[in-house]
Write a structure and sequence with these properties.
Layout: H1 12-20, E1 30-42, E2 45-52, E3 65-72, E4 75-82, E5 93-98, H2 104-112, E6 118-125, E7 138-143, H3 147-159, E8 166-172, H4 181-190, E9 194-200, E10 212-213, H5 218-224, E11 232-236, H6 239-251, E12 259-261, H7 266-283, E13 289-294, E14 300-304, H8 309-315, E15 333-338, E16 341-343, H9 351-355, E17 358-360, E18 364-366, E19 370-372
Parallel strand pairs: 7-8, 7-11, 8-9, 9-10, 11-12, 13-19
Antiparallel strand pairs: 1-2, 1-6, 2-5, 3-4, 3-6, 13-14, 15-17, 15-19, 16-18
Bound molecules: FE2/S2 (inorganic) cluster (FES).
Length: about 375
């Protein structure tokens, strides 16, 4: 039982607590998870709680995500889902998934995943977390299922009795679409520093709705959270929502250096991946060719300086686990034993891992002949 009387500083102490064990389950390591519970959050959102197959605890930072994979209709499908449960309950990892029309994984999970079933997953990854934001005031802004990383952060903060000054602004289509609505209210009753603001586009069937019933705007933010410009802001939601929030905060005088957002968005990534492929094709005309050797198998293959190491490996028939292909999830992390690569990632690798020689192959390009630890 955690006592709310314990004075824990919400700064380095809590951040290092999460960091200690990060790496216990590396983001490029696959483990089996066993489903222990499935339950409805809203009419189209379910939570799936898992434990590791061997019962070991999972260490992660609140806000990180897992990459899960399943064989669906003969195809291996991978998707990244934020861990909605907090790291303070390490024997459980829960993902909260909205059923998306045509979404292969989300529909499969909703229709097929049951208690006792197993699922493969790569370890926790991602750098979207408020644990290193210092002791200042926080502003959480989420829309739809983008609430999950902020929920993990909030649950962890309340579990530890940190009583951080958090204003949590969540946007949904209607009150019935607010994920974790009752739980958030319970958490706010436990933690006086936590203030909630639900913003709905309309009241739906809830005619007694007294909350905001339109989209989030700067004037609304100024009225409801007058000190918003002094808060460290964390935003997660669809690309359009994030863009609107970013613009509103900027216009309202919020310091962009204190703004953080979860950039993980499959649709954005698909576009970015297509654009980067076009750039690769154009650059290939002026590319140098290097040689890659795999230290364990002895296999070699050529790579052009304009293409990613992941693309070259695939062309050579070398199987390397990957998911986002955008340097976010950390799945394709491999140690480079010899040679130089240029890497442009999106938060999927830590500085200390880079110092140890690890690189994300999906966003790394050869600058010389290479030897990979593979
Ligand atoms: Fe996600 Fe490389 S595949 S970081």
């Amino acid at each position: 039982m955690l006592s709310t009387n314990v004075m824990l500083e919400p700064t380095e102490s809590s951040a290092s607590m999460w960091e200690q064990g990060v790496g216990d389950w590396a983001s490029n390591e696959v483990r089996w998870l066993t489903c222990c519970r499935v339950f409805d959050e809203t009419h189209d959102v379910k939570t799936f709680a898992f434990r590791t197959a061997d019962g070991s605890p999972v260490r992660f930072e609140p806000g990180q995500f897992l990459t899960v994979s399943a064989d669906i209709d003969g195809q291996q499908v991978q998707r990244c889902y934020t861990i909605a449960s907090p790291p303070t309950r390490p024997y459980l990892v829960a993902i909260t998934v909205k059923r998306v029309p045509g979404g292969v994984m989300s529909n499969w999970l909703h229709e097929r995943m049951r208690s006792g079933m197993r699922l493969r997953a790569h370890g926790p990854a991602g750098a979207f977390t408020s644990t290193r934001a210092g002791a200042g005031k926080l502003l959480y802004l989420s829309a739809g299922s983008g609430i999950t990383p902020l929920m993990s952060m909030t649950r962890a903060s309340v579990d530890l009795g940190l009583n951080r000054d958090i204003v949590f602004v969540h946007s949904a289509r209607t009150p019935a679409d607010i994920v974790f609505r009752d739980e958030l209210r319970r958490l706010a009753a436990l933690a006086p520093g936590l203030r909630l603001l639900f913003v709905c586009e309309g009241h739906g069937d809830e005619h007694g709705w007294t909350g905001e019933a339109r989209r989030l705007t700067l004037p609304m933010l100024m009225r409801q959270v007058p000190d918003f410009a002094t808060r460290e802001a964390f935003t997660c939601g669809p690309a359009g929502y994030r863009h609107a929030v970013r613009e509103a905060l900027r216009e309202g005088g919020h310091d962009p250096a204190r703004y953080h957002e979860e950039s993980f968005d499959l649709s954005t990534m698909a576009t970015a991946a297509a654009e980067s492929k076009t750039v690769e094709v154009k650059a290939a005309e002026h590319a140098s060719t290097f040689n890659v050797r795999l230290s364990k198998s002895g296999k070699t293959f050529p790579v052009q300086s304009a293409e990613t190491l992941l693309a070259a490996a695939r062309r050579a028939g070398v199987a390397i686990a990957s998911s986002c292909s955008q340097g976010v999830c950390g799945t394709c992390k491999i140690r480079v034993l010899e040679g130089d690569v240029a890497m442009k990632h999106n938060g999927g690798i830590r500085e200390r891992e880079v110092q140890k020689g690890f690189r994300l192959l999906c966003c790394s390009r050869a600058q010389s002949d290479l030897v990979l630890d593979l």
